[in-house]
C-alpha cells in the first residue's frame, strides 16, 4: 500500500539527483581536466601524510516511516482514524572540516566533522471529522491532511575510508564509505514538544562517490553521498497520540551534494 508508493518516490528522487550530479561532474571534468591554463597542477596536497580542508554541502532529507503491524491489521487497527502517513523530502545545508590521513596514494582515512541543519515533514491524512469530532460512520468518508514539521540542528562525525583512482592529468575519481555518529543540539525535553518525537542520537551508514579536480593552489572535489539511518529513533510514548500507534519505526535518510576544498 503506501509503503510501496513511498519507495517508488524515493527511487525516482535518487535517480534525478544522481543524473544531475553526473552531468555536472562531466562538464566540470571536461572544462578543468587539464587544470588552469592547461598546466599540470602541483598543489602538493597528495604528498602530505596528513592534510586538511573544508566543505559546504546541500542535502535533501526524509524520514523512512514503517507502519505498525496493528495499523496494517484491518481487524484491530491502531490509530483507526489515520488513513495514510507520508514523509516528504526537505532541503537543508551543512558545513564542516576535512581531516585526511594518507595510508597510500589511493587509500585514505577521512574524518569530516560537520554541523547540519535539517527539517523533516510528515503529512498525516485523517478521515475528515476526526480533528473536530464530527465523524459520521454512515456517510462516505472524505480526508483531511495535516503537515507536521520538526527542525533539527545536528553535529555529525563521519569516519570514512576513501579509495581513489590513479591520477589522470588533473582529475581523479573516488569512492568512499563508512559510518557516522550524530547528535542533536536541542535537549530531549524540547524535542518532546514535536508531534513526531525522536531520539537525540543516531548512527548512519555513509556511501558516496566523487571527482577530485586539481587547480594550481588547491583541489576541488564535488561529491554525492547517501546516508542511511541504522537505528530506530522513534519515541511513540512522546509523539502525537492521534497517529503515534500507527508507526513502528523511524529512520532518517539523506542525499547530500558536497563541495570539498583542500
From TrEMBL:
The Outer membrane protein beta-barrel domain, residue ranges: 50-234
Domain of life the protein comes from: Bacteria
Native source organism of the sequence: Algoriphagus namhaensis
Name the record gives this protein: Outer membrane beta-barrel protein
Amino acid at each position: 500500500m503506501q509503503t510501496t508508493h513511498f519507495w517508488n518516490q524515493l527511487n525516482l528522487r535518487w535517480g534525478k539527483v544522481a543524473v544531475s550530479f553526473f552531468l555536472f561532474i562531466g562538464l566540470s571534468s571536461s572544462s578543468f581536466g587539464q587544470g588552469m591554463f592547461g598546466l599540470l597542477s602541483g598543489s602538493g596536497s597528495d604528498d602530505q601524510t596528513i592534510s586538511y580542508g573544508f566543505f559546504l554541502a546541500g542535502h535533501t532529507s526524509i524520514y523512512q516511516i514503517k507502519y505498525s503491524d496493528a495499523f496494517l491489521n484491518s481487524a484491530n487497527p491502531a490509530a483507526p482514524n489515520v488513513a495514510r502517513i507520508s514523509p516528504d523530502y526537505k532541503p537543508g545545508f551543512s558545513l564542516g572540516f576535512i581531516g585526511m590521513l594518507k595510508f597510500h596514494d589511493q587509500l585514505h582515512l577521512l574524518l569530516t566533522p560537520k554541523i547540519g541543519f535539517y527539517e523533516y515533514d510528515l503529512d498525516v491524512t485523517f478521515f475528515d471529522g476526526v480533528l473536530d469530532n464530527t465523524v459520521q460512520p454512515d456517510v462516505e468518508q472524505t480526508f483531511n491532511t495535516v503537515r507536521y514539521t520538526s527542525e533539527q540542528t545536528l553535529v555529525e562525525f563521519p569516519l570514512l575510508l576513501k579509495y581513489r583512482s590513479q591520477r589522470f592529468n588533473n582529475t581523479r575519481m573516488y569512492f568512499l564509505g563508512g559510518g557516522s555518529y550524530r547528535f542533536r543540539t536541542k535537549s530531549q525535553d524540547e524535542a518532546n514538544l514535536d508531534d513526531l518525537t525522536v531520539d537525540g542520537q543516531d548512527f548512519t551508514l555513509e556511501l558516496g562517490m566523487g571527482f577530485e579536480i586539481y587547480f594550481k593552489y588547491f583541489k576541488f572535489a564535488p561529491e554525492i553521498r547517501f546516508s542511511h539511518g541504522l537505528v530506530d529513533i522513534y519515541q511513540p510514548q512522546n509523539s502525537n497520540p492521534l497517529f503515534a500507534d500507527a508507526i513502528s519505526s523511524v529512520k532518517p535518510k539523506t542525499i547530500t551534494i558536497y563541495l570539498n576544498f583542500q
